Amino acid sequence: MDLLKCKLLKLINCHMKPTVCKCFILLVLILVLRSLLSPFPGFSWFQQRASYMLTTSEAPNLPVVFRKVKFLEVPQIIWGLNNQKIALARACLTARFLNRTLLMPSLSASLFYKEIDLLQPITFDKLFNFEKFNSLCHGFVQLGRFSDLSNQAKPFELQKGSGRKWTKERDLDQLKQLREDQIDEFEIIRIVGKHPFLWHDHWPVKDYARIFECLVLVDEIENEAVRVISKIKEIGIKARNDLDSSKKKLSLDGSVDLPVPYIAVHMRIEKDWMIHCKKLEQRSNINQICSSKGEIMERVSNITGLQHPIVVYLAVADSLLEDDSILRGWKDVLLPYEKKSLGVWDIYQKYPYLIQSAIDYEVCSRANVFIGNSFSTFSSLIVLSRTQKLLDMGVTSSCNLDLRLASYAYNIPGASGAPKRWMTDMSASSLQSISYGTNNITC
User: Fold this and answer.
1) Residues 329-340: tens digit of each pLDDT
2) Domain 49-213 CATH assignment equals 3.40.50
């Protein structure tokens, strides 16, 4: 260091006062040291801990803003898998609006939502990959761990409004007040009370879709989903070769020369759904919500362009299913299977409801053709993800006869007795129709 200082003194012909000259040399030394240290990971990590970089949602084209890391904490997220995914995304977008990092929320492993003691909390990183989420959503939204907190200072607690008088405008005004200096100085803003799924929606569908793309299953659950899909395709291979072995040439490893397609049907005929959908039809004066088992089977069988025979995977909530005849009555070219008949029940029964639903979601989402109910959140989010995949592939409309990632709503009749083609309106200004269902499905 002394040698470096001496060389700098020789290089600089300084006629300034000694004190001023020394300050100048010290500044040069700091700049040199910073340039030497910056490539090291540890130094970058220190910088990330000290500041947070995010472009605000209100002005995405403005220069990037640097600020000290601050956090948003939300209540435990509850209800079904896809309501929890929407609640998580809504919490993320709220944190983005406040230019804060969302502290990793607690999900709910069970389906119970009224009995608080039965919610079985499960951390986000037990289902979704924390690191991949932050990597894929980098610069848009960010999750943090409670270990990231710098101190134990008391958070600012906010009670979300509720009731008919609590309008969307009042909710947005409340969020804007949180960005004022006095409140914004708190390291943590903790929202208490109201469940995030019930918060007012201020963000377009494309923002939700971007967050959903960042939700990657942890390896353990991803591998389970792959096992289920492999079993479906294995049965499909056998059925095709039994029909005409000369048309398919199996290689030594058991694969086929062409991909083996399968259909996935989110068959909503469980007792809780039938009660809900009938009440919903009465309130909304819409008769295209409930569908019987017979109507679903008939409409699925009328889909044209399918390669027969083909496996039909039936995604149902087994514990709520009263009708054990869902495998009977299908046309011969359609081969229906659910978890138990498929021989994968051992995979599902190891896990709580939330993870079982996450496996089913992946099996349905990756099917060649998906058929669901447009008033089901589960079905709606699957179609949203499939629509996003089509857009990424450059396909702007799947409403024609091309069956690549085709989706249908069996509760709405289409041409020739088939279900109606379904594609999410990605230009929608809110997630309202996806959260609560619609019979306006673009196609």
Assistant:
1) 999 999 999 999
2) yes
